[in-house]
């Protein structure tokens, strides 16, 4: 295991680093040059501005670019620095990448609210939100280097060009490397406020859109990559919590004296919902946890049975209860009254667990005077880049230093900082000794924060020609945006639409799960379309062509998917293809080919094709990898994964009873076609996953003539449909 090295503060870094840091101010992207050897000038700059570095250049020409996003396998440690390096004209072979400090004022990108900033690696927003920031910063860094060379050579800057970390003066055949320019760097009085036409022409790209190996892969392959779970600090102790499997229940510990007498146990720390233990070793902490004798109170979840609740949800859908309006377009009631035919269908989905590979963990050290804290964690960050620690411990935010580590899977779970807050409270009790908190897999399954369970009632109207004139969509479930996102049909020309969320709550912990509400809502919408097509004897592709008449980019993905999947070609015996469209930033159409074992009810996905419009593609290979990963995760959740609750208690506990997709179930092939675009990059991490449920269900419908309407499609449910 790795040993954590001492982390310098930003001020220490600036005073001791060699070379030059290009600074970006809080008021905008305004690089300011400070020679790191000139300590007095550094101090003067820091006194005048709260600044930090985006990039560092040494006299040897080494370039360090700082990545503001979490890296959980999605490639941010490459895609964002590539944007910077492209506009800077940097020699990529000399570039290193490090995590930036977790300082939103400096490193934040545009948030969801106007004028806000976030460091939040969620919602497929990372590349899109940082695209203008990284390009502009890189272009301004290049301008500073050219300006400095012009002054050094006493030539007009207009005569200079750059290439591969060199400034070139063609009239005199002179050139200087960026490293050689470090002693001569000067800051212009005014920096250009670059416009789109002043950035590099895409035809001249050397990095963006090319095959660039990801920067963090070598250390992940050779085992030197440091995740939070690898952190070891001197005098460190371990913490665990027993949280039970009845969400919201409060514990009463009956054998505290016995637990404290166990070898290695240091403290027993009660929480409102758990009992915490700190010990000298993880083994001692886990041993003590097994011996806890706890009486658990009842909670809101007591008596709740997840597989029986759908009957209640149907009654809510039938009722006149008013919910929150999500979409209101045209006159749906009139469309239903004047329809030649209407279709009404209910769709259901069970709870799903995140199943991230690395168990939740954090290491926190609180100072002896309780006025500062160091945090080592793999986090998707959040609206508070200090992850709630300052408020919880009453420590000034500037005295909390978060050392972001690689994440062993996120999927939305690590955008929730409950595990960080738990570690902070344990660390406060043990100060100044550092505490490592580890959740076991059983902790994470039984006390998980799940993708919500929902029932969705959809009603569609068609005219005499079979065109869809209206769509009504009711979602019944808990979680607000967790269940209500992905309902708006921006790319379908349906003139009258109504969507409404009717809230329920059972005290079960919930959280964003990859693609949030898109996975379940697109399942319902896309499956209803195919059921309409089958009833009308229409081709599902043709039905979507008509709906996409006013959305040419969406239509282009449909046409490409049709082409690469050979939709109209002959089917193999016992197989059928299904289609689905989804948007989650990027636009994608997916087609899958399946077969079904009529005896066991097992669905086998043989091939999957996706056509994707994600705007400018920064890393083509990585985009394809993201699509493949999203599809496979989607297949796992659609065919296998299921959390059930009986009398309020989570029934699953580990991967023996929470089933995941196995290697034998992986498709024979996955093909992704990337559609060229000059639009701003869109997220790709959450576009593939919502395609899976509806594409599989639609293929099943074509193969058997029977619909699948309840996720997951377990063999038992499939057999019930086949035999029903």
From TrEMBL:
Q: Give the InterPro entries listed for this entry.
A: Ald_Oxase/Xan_DH_a/b, Ald_Oxase/Xan_DH_a/b_sf, AldOxase/xan_DH_MoCoBD1, AldOxase/xan_DH_MoCoBD2, AldOxase/xan_DH_Mopterin-bd_sf, N-heterocyclic_Hydroxylase, OxRdtase_Mopterin-bd_su_IorB, TAT_signal
The UniProt transmembrane annotation reads none
Record Pfam families: MoCoBD_1, MoCoBD_2
All residue ranges annotated as the Aldehyde oxidase/xanthine dehydrogenase a/b hammerhead domain in the record: 222-300
What is an example of a GO molecular function annotated in this UniProt entry? oxidoreductase activity
PANTHER family associated with the record: ALDEHYDE DEHYDROGENASE, BLL3820 PROTEIN
Output this protein's name. Answer: Isoquinoline 1-oxidoreductase, beta subunit
The source organism is Kriegella aquimaris
